[in-house]
């Protein structure tokens, strides 16, 4: 479902034109969704939320009862999440961690470090020797694993199994494990293995990837004789913008993870999704300013645009949307701009042809003043957008509890 929930619809209708565009989040819908996800997962599987998907404090707080912790990927996220949900366990990932960020993470007592390279491992060891005292820092090296069987073929955003700047190459696994187990880095503890190989995978592919990661990690641990306590399987559960009513099959995925966990007693499995947790609880609401024809095609220009909601531009899709026709009489003496055809392309206010939110939307009779509510806008939306381009006003933010 991408149509706005009744409370979102009511709020969007009630807002004054000048209060648009606005992001509206339905936190009740978010909590219901998370309860379902949690219910589908075995209780032994740890669920971390990848804060980069949507770090609004209200979202982070609403998620707290359902997640075991948060995955953060920068010093900024570390501070921000630490403030929004104080005391929640944090896993610190991301490539290119600076010494200052690592220092801060150590000082804040971050629970897990996802180490992305040998350089980073040595830097962490050096800084931990200065800051960690008697504490041993839990490390999960992130590996860029080759996953066979075509499991990553469906991914629009693969980060593993091919040349990328992410994680440690598997050819360096022996070196990394040796460093962590031969006593040369005494302040670090090899707690397990981390992998995040792709985004946008459906449950069967996610399970195939999970099985491959665990099998690889188990072999590595057996080869080196270290106790494998944890495997983090990453995020990347699919959100289908072209078929927004479809949902990632958490039930099938949870059942598969239960089988995997049962086959490896004593091993903690952890996942860290972002998009599939928060995408459906957010809407970007706006209003049609103008409707015009151009070379045989029809365009509606809406308040705002991809500088607020960059998701369709980055992913190359049409953002699902719902039109809420205006009840207001047209206040001007001249004719109201109205679409004459059935299909209208919804563009924003930026001076670039790339500022398109959705193409050829069925919207017969769309008029200036009608409201358009874009769904699936709760993840990688506002926070990945280029807000300052053209200096239009920022949207409003509303969190319906
Ligand atoms: C290391 C890591 N974990 C988790 C995620 C979350 O992925 P998604 O939002 O697709 O679930 C990302 C996204 O880039 C990531 O880089």
UniProtKB/TrEMBL annotation:
Keyword Ribonucleoprotein: no
Coiled-coil regions, chain positions: none
Highest taxon above the source species: Bacteria
SUPFAM superfamilies membership: Alanine racemase C-terminal domain-like, PLP-binding barrel
Orn/DAP/Arg decarboxylase 2 N-terminal domain ranges (all copies): 29-279
Active site: 351
InterPro entries membership: Ala_racemase/Decarboxylase_C (IPR009006), De-COase2_C (IPR022643), De-COase2_N (IPR022644), Orn/DAP/Arg_de-COase (IPR000183), PLP-binding_barrel (IPR029066)
Gene Ontology process terms (BP): lysine biosynthetic process via diaminopimelate
Domain Orn/DAP/Arg decarboxylase 2 C-terminal: 23-378
Cofactor: pyridoxal 5'-phosphate
Residue positions, PTM N6-(pyridoxal phosphate)lysine: 52
MF-aspect GO terms: diaminopimelate decarboxylase activity
PANTHER family given in the database record: DIAMINOPIMELATE DECARBOXYLASE, GROUP IV DECARBOXYLASE
UniProt similarity note: Belongs to the Orn/Lys/Arg decarboxylase class-II family.
Protein name: Diaminopimelate decarboxylase
Organism of derivation: Streptomyces gilvosporeus
């Amino acid at each position: 479902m991408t149509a706005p929930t009744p409370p979102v619809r009511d709020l969007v209708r009630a807002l004054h034109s000048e209060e648009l565009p606005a992001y509206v989040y339905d936190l009740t819908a978010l909590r219901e969704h998370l309860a379902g996800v949690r219910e589908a997962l075995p209780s032994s599987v740890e669920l971390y939320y990848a804060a980069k998907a949507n770090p609004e404090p209200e979202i982070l707080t609403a998620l707290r009862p359902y997640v075991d912790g948060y995955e953060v990927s920068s010093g900024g996220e570390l501070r921000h999440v630490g403030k929004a949900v104080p005391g929640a366990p944090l896993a610190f990932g991301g490539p290119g961690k600076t010494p200052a960020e690592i220092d801060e993470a150590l000082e804040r007592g971050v629970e897990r470090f996802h180490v992305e390279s040998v350089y980073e491992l040595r830097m962490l060891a050096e800084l931990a020797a200065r800051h960690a005292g008697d504490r041993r820092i839990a490390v999960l090296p992130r590996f860029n694993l080759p996953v066979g069987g075509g499991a990553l073929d469906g991914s629009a955003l693969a980060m593993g199994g091919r040349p990328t700047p992410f994680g440690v190459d598997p050819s360096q696994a022996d070196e990394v494990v040796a460093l962590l187990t031969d006593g040369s880095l005494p302040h670090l503890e090899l707690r397990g293995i981390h992998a995040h190989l792709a985004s946008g995978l459906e449950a069967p592919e996610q399970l195939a990837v999970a099985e491959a990661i665990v099998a690889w990690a188990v072999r590595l641990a057996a080869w080196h004789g270290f106790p494998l306590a944890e495997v983090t399987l990453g995020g990347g559960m699919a959100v289908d913008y072209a078929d927004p009513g479809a949902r990632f099959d958490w039930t099938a995925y949870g059942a598969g993870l239960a089988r995997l966990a049962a086959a490896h007693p004593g091993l903690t499995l952890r996942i860290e999704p972002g998009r599939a947790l928060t995408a459906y609880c957010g809407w970007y609401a706006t209003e049609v300013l103008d409707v015009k024809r151009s070379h045989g095609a029809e365009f509606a220009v809406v308040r705002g645009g991809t500088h607020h909601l960059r998701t369709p531009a980055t992913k190359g899709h049409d953002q699902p949307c719902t039109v809420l026709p205006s009840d207001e009489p047209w206040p001007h003496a001249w004719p109201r701009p109205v679409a004459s055809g059935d299909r209208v392309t919804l563009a924003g206010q930026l001076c670039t042809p790339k500022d398109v939110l959705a193409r050829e939307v069925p919207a017969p009779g769309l008029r200036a003043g009608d409201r358009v509510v874009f769904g699936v806008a709760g993840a990688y939306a506002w926070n990945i957008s280029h807000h300052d381009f053209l200096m239009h006003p920022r949207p409003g933010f509303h969190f319906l509890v």
